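Question (not urgent): is this output format expected?
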Amino acid sequence: MKTLDDLLAEGVSGRRVLVRADLNVPLDGQTITDDGRIRASVPTISSLTGAGARVVLAAHLGRPKGAPEEKYSLKPVAARLNELVDATVTLASDTVGDSAKSTVDGLADGEVALLENIRFDPRETSKDEAERAALAGDLAALVGEGGAFVSDGFGVVHRKQASVFDVARLLPAYAGGLVLAEVEVLRKLTGSPERPYVVVLGGSKVSDKLAVIESLLPKVDRLLVGGGMCFTFLAAQGHEVGKSLLETEMIETCKRLLGEAGNKILLPKDVVIADAFSAVAATETVPVNEIREGWLGLDIGPEASARYGTVLSNAATIFWNGPMGVFELAPFAEGTRVVAQAIVDSRGYSVVGGGDSAAAVRALGLPEDGFSHISTGGGASLEFLEGKELPGVAVLEDAS
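Got this back:
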């Protein structure tokens, strides 16, 4: 596929370049609580503005219903970009309407126009190809003749959406530095990774990770399970799990996976339980066969954390997706902290699979450079490892 470097070599001074970025950051009201995705987008934006391009950014925030909603406005993102990018960033008040057109028309070389949340337009996520194509045409018209498209939002490349897929068929299309780096990293994991290859999976539900578990099991040496999903596995082993998160319809599937895996799947031997989902709840650490009725498990225990850490210390390749517990609440953050620190301390090539795992790294104050790579796309990373075709990547390969 053609890359940002190819575009820069062609020359972009005075040209309008549409960049699909992933600026979907968590907010507390209007306050950004984790700006990791914004910071990850800065190198591509800065490369273009530094070369004199007139950059038009398209991005989404949250899940609006195809119409403007103030709580999903990109205003906080625009403010943060202005702090991070050495260029003027102006937010349009619509996606492809009059404000977008006038904002883009007013750009000077090296300036940035940020279109309002692209998902305010229902055509962005439409299943109707003609509707998506129409929005893609409007986006292409904004950059006009001589324009180009740079795909740099890895977190959305698994979606066949107008600003990700369809517009790449209308404009000369290039992979941004972030997308290129993500694809190269994940290809290392799906090729012939150095062994031992250890995968750490957490998060809430087995059903969310079933496809990636089934895809990875034949390839990995150990699969360490934590988070809410571990309780369905524990139930499959015959343990009572109290009020812990449990997918009863997945118990038989977990039994099958445990049978197929041999000794590859590692489950916690102890867990931290609480009498309520609260930072001030009563808590205890108990063996997994002593989870009390009415209590719920919210973290893996210290024995499990230490055991997982030992396995990770010997790993040559590590992929981590999903926290070990409810790390946002202090009493249930230790399992995630210990496991993440073990990954930092290991000598292995380590990839953090975006989403809550990347947020945990920053929330717990762990050094980001302690990991070989922190992905910006949790869902996209998992689908890549499942072996699925990512539409936003495939269209770039077809364009080359």
